[in-house]
Each structure stands twice: as structure tokens, then as C-alpha cells.
Design brief:
Uridine Diphospho-n-acetylenolpyruvylglucosamine Reductase, domain 3, 350 residues, Rossmann fold, alpha/beta, six-stranded mixed β-sheet, five-stranded antiparallel β-sheet, single chain, 2 domains
């Protein structure tokens, strides 16, 4: 076994341990690109040792005509040669109703996650493995900073993530539905250069998506333009710096989350799908960031549309708590009323 193979498989074992993949059935999302091929090949080499029952899934977005069809056929051949059950779906992104609202990248992500969630549930998989690497993590954190983020966004992606599906065009706009296998990322601490060395050492080919070079897409501009600029002119270790920032944010956020969860349990009097009541007294004694996080948790618990809320909206809730009497309207739409020592929130049904 070559040095790159040994190093890569060792890192993948550690990722599998973090994601609790041993002795489970796992669905691997495979585009045919280097990252996902390395993940599937690595798991296949380890599947007997770790007692993993492997399945693969590929969604043909039909964005590149014959090139997309060739990718799907390549993935099927790769899996067939290794006796890995392969589930291939086809859906045109350009015809998806969400395109006008979410854009190409957002729509592709939503459609792909729906497909993976459906296949994972049908095959009774414990998790859906995706090939996000440390490079992707750094890009994600930088992307969040550019868009404007708080402490939660600085954490980047998680090794495991419960899928929450938001359909902005559904009958209940922005509603959240949970369920199905979680997303798992066993390569999240593996650098892409090691992954490529592993494939080279294994003499394993892979597909190259021509749209990865399209710098009209935000993530591609960050990868091909912004990160090289920052590394070349400001900090050669920018990727490592972003990853450290994400780790520190995760450690701080974990403590803050525990405190916010305790605060929510203390103040919550009554909840229903369309309304809730809270005590204001304990909220007024807490720092603003904890109160904001408490309300984020409340929205998540009620299944209300958090994506419609910005920092200014969460801050308005803090200000209502501090007031004596006030009524505000928030996205959702949600009406918030402060009456004496109580806070009442009501969401109108659509």
C-alpha cells in the first residue's frame, strides 16, 4: 500500500469513527468528480473492515447535455465493477420551479438533497455520505463571512447534519420538514491534495465537471479567484486560518447553545404550531446574543421559517423583550406582542 493510500485511508477511518459509520448501511453521493470518487473508493476498500453496507447515488441534473449523461454512465460502470448498488436519478434543474427564487446553485442543491433523502430513506440507510473536504470547509466559512454571518455561520459545515428541507414556493412558504437519514461528511478534515494523491496512486480516473471552472458561480469565484488572491497577497496559510476560526467558533457556540437551550426551557410556557407564550423576566436578565439564540431555537422547535429572518429581525425580538409594551411584525408573518411580563408570538397560516 502506497503512502498516499495509507494516509488517506487512515484519515477516512477517523472520519468514519466521527460519523459513526461502522456496521451501518450508507448511501454515498457520487457525482463522478475526484472528491466523491475518492470517498466511494476509500469506503469500498474499508467496507469489510468497518462492516459498512455501501450504496451509491447519482443525480443527473441535465445541465451539460451529453456530458451529464456520460457522467451518469461512468458512475454506474464504476459501481458495477465493484458490485456497489447504484441508484441514478434524472431531473432537469432548468425546469425546476424554484430556479427563479433560488438561482442555479441553490436549486441544484435543493433538488440534489431531495433526491438523496428519498433514496436514502427508501434503502433504509443510516446516513448519506457526501465528499466535502477541508478545502470545501474553508470555502464555506469564507462564503458565510462574505454574505454576513454570526457565530453559527462561522462554524461552517458539520460532520453530521440532519436534513431540513425548505421549499420557498410551497403552500406554507419557508416551512421546514425534517426526517430521513442525516448528511455525513467523513472527509471534512481531509485536504483535497491528499485525496488527489490517493487517486493517482490507485491509478483511478474520475470525471471533470466543466461547470467547476465557471466563475459566474459564487463558489467557483471564491475557489478560483478569492482564495488564491488571499493566499498570494495576504496570507499563504489562509485555508488553515479559516479552518481554525471555524473550530474556535464551534467550541464557543457549543457552550452558548447549551445555555440558550436551558433559557428556552425556563421561559417557555405554552407552544402550539401557530403560537407560543414566554416569560420575559428571565430573558431580560440575559445578554443579547443568548436571547437571540434562544429565539432561533424557538423558531427551529416550532418549524417556523428561519431563513426569512435576518440579524435585524432577531435583534428586534431582543428589543421587544426589553420594552414594557410593544407589538411588532416579523417575516413569516409572525406577530410579537409584549404584555406585562409575557411575550406572545403568533404565526399567521398561509
Amino acid at each position: 500500500m502506497g503512502s498516499a493510500t495509507s494516509e488517506f485511508l487512515s484519515a477516512l477511518r477517523a472520519g468514519c469513527e466521527t460519523c459513526h459509520l461502522a456496521r451501518t448501511r450508507v448511501l454515498v453521493a457520487v457525482s463522478g468528480g475526484a472528491d466523491s470518487v475518492a470517498l466511494l473508493l476509500g469506503l469500498w476498500l474499508l467496507h469489510e473492515e468497518l462492516q459498512i453496507d455501501l450504496h451509491a447515488a447519482h443525480l443527473n441534473h441535465q445541465l451539460r447535455g451529453g456530458e451529464s449523461d456520460a457522467d451518469a454512465a461512468w458512475v454506474e460502470d464504476f459501481c458495477r465493477s465493484r458490485a456497489i448498488p447504484c441508484h441514478v436519478g434524472t431531473e432537469s434543474i432548468t425546469e425546476a420551479p424554484q430556479l427563479a427564487k433560488l438561482g442555479l446553485e441553490g436549486t441544484a442543491r435543493l433538488v440534489r438533497r431531495r433526491f438523496l433523502q428519498r433514496v436514502g430513506a427508501e434503502q433504509h440507510c443510516a446516513g448519506i455520505a457526501v465528499a466535502h473536504t477541508a478545502d470545501d470547509q474553508a470555502e464555506t466559512i469564507l462564503h458565510h463571512i462574505i454574505r454576513g454571518t454570526g457565530l453559527a455561520g462561522l462554524r461552517g459545515m458539520h460532520a453530521d447534519e440532519v436534513l431540513a428541507e425548505v421549499d420557498p414556493l410551497g403552500t406554507d412558504a419557508g416551512s421546514v420538514r425534517h426526517g430521513g437519514p442525516p448528511l455525513i461528511r467523513p472527509l471534512l478534515h481531509v485536504e483535497r491534495q491528499l485525496l488527489v494523491r490517493f487517486l493517482t496512486e490507485q491509478n483511478q480516473s474520475y470525471r471533470t465537471d466543466s461547470t467547476n471552472a465557471d466563475t459566474t458561480l459564487t463558489r467557483n469565484r471564491i475557489r478560483h479567484k478569492l482564495l488564491p488572491l488571499l493566499a498570494g497577497e495576504f496570507n499563504p496559510q489562509i485555508q488553515q486560518a479559516l479552518l481554525r476560526l471555524g473550530q474556535q467558533a464551534q467550541e464557543i457556540y457549543a457552550d452558548e447553545l447549551l445555555l440558550a437551550e436551558g433559557l428556552l426551557r425556563e421561559v417557555l410556557i405554552e407552544t402550539a404550531p401557530s403560537h407560543c407564550r414566554l416569560r420575559c423576566g428571565p430573558l431580560r436578565e440575559q445578554p443579547p446574543q443568548r436571547v437571540r439564540e434562544c429565539f432561533v431555537l424557538l423558531w427551529r422547535q416550532l418549524g417556523w421559517p428561519r431563513r426569512l429572518m435576518g440579524f435585524a429581525d432577531w435583534q428586534r425580538l431582543v428589543e421587544v423583550v426589553a420594552s414594557e409594551s410593544s407589538t411588532i411584525m416579523l417575516p413569516g408573518p409572525v406577530t410579537v406582542q409584549r404584555r406585562d411580563s409575557l411575550l406572545m408570538l403568533t404565526r399567521e397560516s398561509r
